[in-house]
Amino acid sequence: MPLTYDVRIYSIETRRDRPKPYRVRWLVGPQKHSKSYTVKAQADGRRSELMTALRKGEQFDVETGLPASELRALHGSVTWYEHTRAYIDRRWDKLPAKSRRNDADALATITPALVKTTVGQPSPRLLRTALYSWAYNKSRWPQEHPSDVMEALLWLEKNSLPVAALEDPATLRLALDALSTLLNGSSAGARTARRKRACLSDVLGLAVERRYFSVPVNPLSTVKWSAPKSTEEVDPASVANPRQVRALLEAVRGQGERGAHLEAFFGCLYYASMRPAEAVGLKASQCHLPKRGWGKLTLRGGIVHAGRDWTDDGRAHQDRHLKARAQRDSRVVPIPPHFVAMLRWHIERYGTAPDGRLFRTNRGGVIQDTGYGEVWASARGDALTPEQEASPLARRPYDLRCAGVSFWLYSGVDPMEVARRAGHSVAVLLRVYAKVLAQAQDRANHQIEAGLREWDGSGPSPGGRLGDTR
User: Which of 24, 269, 284, 338 is the most exposed, having the fewest neighbouring CB atoms within 10 Å of its CB?
Assistant: First the structure.
């Protein structure tokens, strides 16, 4: 609510039938405010304070009814620790489990840096545990905290800086330095640092909304900061070509029954360029698999591992909508005939889980990244030469998705269509696959040169102009 000069202060009202009979009443904009007292002198004193603020020309807050000076003093007493807990409380019910965990991770990194003193400070690992697992995990707030955790949190409550202190760029840089550094002192990755900075910005934005700062500006916008250096571009050395992918999938199938069950799973990552979470949650109802020709997969989300401590139902996994999409959005990905046949064979041989999922554990559970990662590592050892195995080539299952997108681009598919199929924005596609696109451009340049040489060799057309075929 805004501040206003539109204030009226009324005379003290006396109500003899009340435990606190003396009531101070005032009007701020359209909002009525009042405060009752047992002793008339107290009511007189409070009315005098309000009148003094009004005579000094102070604005009043419409929502609380307080003069601006009192409001600043009140907000100045709110600590960073208190504010971040309120931030978690406000967002918890609306966030997916993995985002809850990410917020806790970011705040557990930043909060220990924003303290008045280090005297008596608990160890960094204890502070990390106390904040990440307890203070910023709302589902554990009602539970009894271990004694060492309680002591650590009490120390933070006592020594946490006021939120208003972050208006000082030097203090704000303490937070930025903290989110750029890991617990062991090494530099955080660029993506990790940017994710934590985004959380810091949101927390400060809420502080601006609650008027904890002297000016309504997010202080983060006034400080220059650069994320640790890294590259988002796909390394061409990690991108397997179609022949290598076929060899790798054959090697997966050769890893016994477990591998045979996962061959089509890895095929999803390459031939449909699906994210692993999307493939983990793929159901038969999403698959259109004709006996001949191209099929299609209609992707509507995935299954993300978040951890039992962060979900509402205590499950380790959570169903999620498509990344960066609306809740009920979908993405249709055409798939080539030989992959259609692979999926048809998989369903005929293994059937589906009770909920329709194509890929599952022996007990029907959700497949784990550790499990399919082991199969992939063994398959690389069988399919690749020692030099290739030691290289970045298809080192991670996720590299199959990158290889699939790269092959589409190299084949000449329009980047906008590639982005749609892969679930990227065009801007992200062009940035992440810049090196792959450069290779595709080289190929196009060679084709253009070949065409020019053909015309150079045969001489100009009868019309005397290039392209004139009359």
Answer: 338
SS3 131: helix
Average pLDDT over residues 423-440: 80
E strand spans, 215-359: 287-288, 295-299, 301-305, 317-321, 331-335
Calculate the dihedral angle through the C-alpha atoms of 64, 66, 72, 75, rounding to the nearest 10 degrees: -30
Residue 274 identity: M
Q: What is the Rg, in whole angstroms, of the alpha carbon atoms belonging to the chain?
A: 31
- Rounded Cα distance between 179 and 197, Å, is 7
**End-to-end alpha-carbon separation of the chain, Å?**
76
The Cβ of residue 357 has, within 10 Å, a number of other Cβ atoms equal to 18
Taking the CA atoms of 223, 89, 102 and 104 in sequence, report the sign of the dihedral they define.
positive
115 DSSP β-pair partners:
160
The conformation of residue 163, written as its DSSP 8-state character, comes to: G
Q: Residue 257 burial by CB count (10 A; 0-12/13-18/19+): exposed, middle or buried? A: exposed
284-328 pLDDT, tens digit per residue, is 999 999 999 999 999 998 888 888 888 888 887 888 877 766 677
Q: What string of H, E and C letters represents the secondary structure of 190-250? A: HHHHHHHHHHHHHHHHHHHHCCCCCCCCCHHHHCCCCCCCCCCCCCHHHCCCHHHHHHHHH
Q: For 268, left (φ over 0), alpha (ψ -120 to 50), or beta?
A: alpha
If you search the block for the tokens 């102009």, which residue do you land on?
465
Distance CA 315, CA 96 (A): 13
Distance of CA 17 to the CA centre of its chain: 57
Long-range contacts of 304-307 (CB under 8 A, 24+ apart): 304/96, 304/97, 304/98, 304/277, 305/366, 305/368, 305/369, 306/96, 306/97, 306/98, 306/100, 306/101, 307/97, 307/101
Which of helix, strand or coil describes residue 275?
coil
Residue 470 has pLDDT above 80, yes or no: no
